[in-house]
Amino acid sequence: MLEINSVNNRTIKDIRKLEKKKYRKENHLYLIEGFHLVIEALQSKQKYLYLLGTQEALERLERETHRKFDDDRTILINEMICDHLSATKNSQDIFMVLPINQPKTFSFEYGRWVILDNVTDPGNVGTIIRTADAAGFDGVVLSQASVDLYNPKVQRSMQGSQFHIQIIQTPVMSAIASFKENGLPVYVSVLDKEAKKLNNTPSVPQLALIIGNEAHGASQEVIDSADKKIYIPLYGQAESLNAAVAAGIMIYHFA
């Protein structure tokens, strides 16, 4: 086990930089924090570069996982460093640095998928991924204009679901083309009463379900490419639903 006591240590400085997308992309690394996320990573056998924590936090992790953490990937740090690294007001004093492992090649041959077209709110993206995981979907596709999957707020909102299902950030139109080539119907959520009501839309065993931008919905190109346009009827006076709420309703309709 290594021990670091200063926020000016080079390793700590490099880890702190991972809060910014630029440095995550350059180093192909990202940071998670908190017991739940770290334990989820360990249980799903994720490879990691470093595990960092105070003595008390590491001892708690050992009790909860029934494992020993005393190799050179484990770094003992103090509370000052924890506060320096934490993206939350109340740090749990436990962190993990993991490699970014976006697949270079992939195909969408089967299953139930969610496509996020320019969804930019980290909380919405994380919640939608978590909901897709809970509903038994196979994966989520993020457009390149959507928020970065490794954003700390997205990580916290996913609550470990990133370790359970496939999540791929790739151009939306190429993903849609791949789904169609493999015979999966592509449905898009729209705010248009000319579309088909969700409650009148039969569930299907396989599909790609597109959720659009919070303010503007899916792009016209994406809408035009879909096999079916669907909407959730609104019975009150609200103009629309939150993107994550609308996605949750639709995801469970097709679960």
Automatic annotation (TrEMBL):
Record keywords: Methyltransferase, Transferase
CDD domains listed in its UniProt record: SpoU-like_rRNA-MTase (cd18095)
GO molecular function term, any single one: methyltransferase activity
One Pfam entry name: MRM3-like_sub_bind
Occurrences of domain RNA 2-O ribose methyltransferase substrate binding (ranges): 31-104
UniProt keyword Methyltransferase present: yes
Chain ranges passing through the membrane: none
Keyword Secreted part of the UniProt annotation: no
A single GO BP: methylation
Family: Belongs to the class IV-like SAM-binding methyltransferase superfamily. RNA methyltransferase TrmH family.
Protein name (database record): TrmH family RNA methyltransferase
Annotated source species: Lactobacillus colini
